[in-house]
Amino acid sequence: MGIAREVFGDALPIAERYAAFLADAGVERGLIGPREADRLWERHLINCAVVAEAIPDGAQIVDIGSGAGLPGIVLAIVRPDLRVTLLEPLLRRTTFLNECVEMLDLTNVEVRRARAEEVAEEFSMDVATARAVAPLDRLARWALPLLRPGGELLALKGERAAAELEEARPVLQRFGARTTELLQVGHGMVDPPTTLVRVVADREVGPGGAVGRQQRAPRRAKGSRKRSS
């Protein structure tokens, strides 16, 4: 909890209420596995909170396949300057997310019940996040059309991150990716550090991969990076 206090700061009481709700209703409704209840902080909450290191100030975020709100709700707690849309197609999960938002009084969060493909023409986000949703090639098809030119996909990945990145290159090229890289965040907070695949969108992208004009990318946040392209 010392690390949790360092990561969440004054927002720790809100994070504690969220953790308690995950361990209770989240497990009961099948959004969190029963074995996860005892390791929510190190495996889930802190692991997601450190992603905030890679997100610019005041960004508009869409969390794809938000499920139990990881990482979307955690990011909204630790970074109240962010505007977060939790995108989730399943009713039982959006019901849970709405209950979380109301209980935690998260005024910077909106819950949207839809698939990414259904809202691609509505969204022009700064950042898209996703955790344990799909392989990167499939995730890129959903996420890149939701981003403005220069917007970033931040996909939380495990030990196969580099392999997934290589496998996804044809799709990333088709959908107008400008650059890709592996990024680790949370050094000294989580062990091992959280691994992200960052994909910067080069152009406006339609749901089928049609691309439009180019613009400059937003300011990058600090972190240790491994350049991939």
From TrEMBL:
Q: What SUPFAM superfamilies does the record tag this protein with?
A: S-adenosyl-L-methionine-dependent methyltransferases
Instruction: Provide the Gene Ontology terms for cellular component.
Output: cytosol
- Which compartments does it reside in? Cytoplasm
Q: Which UniProt keywords apply?
A: Cytoplasm, Methyltransferase, rRNA processing, S-adenosyl-L-methionine, Transferase
Question: Which residues does S-adenosyl-L-methionine bind?
Answer: G65, L70, A116, E117, R131
Top-level taxon in the UniProt lineage: Bacteria
- Entry's CDD domains? AdoMet_MTases (cd02440)
Q: Which InterPro entries match?
A: rRNA_ssu_MeTfrase_G (IPR003682), SAM-dependent_MTases_sf (IPR029063)
Q: Which Pfam families does this entry report, sorted A to Z? A: GidB
Renumbered residue ranges of the record's region Disordered: 206-229
* Compositional bias of kind Basic residues: 216-229
Annotated EC: 2.1.1.-
GO molecular function annotation: rRNA (guanine-N7-)-methyltransferase activity
| Described function | Specifically methylates the N7 position of a guanine in 16S rRNA.
Which family is this protein grouped under?
Belongs to the methyltransferase superfamily. RNA methyltransferase RsmG family.
- Protein name (record): Ribosomal RNA small subunit methyltransferase G
Organism per entry: Actinomadura rubrisoli
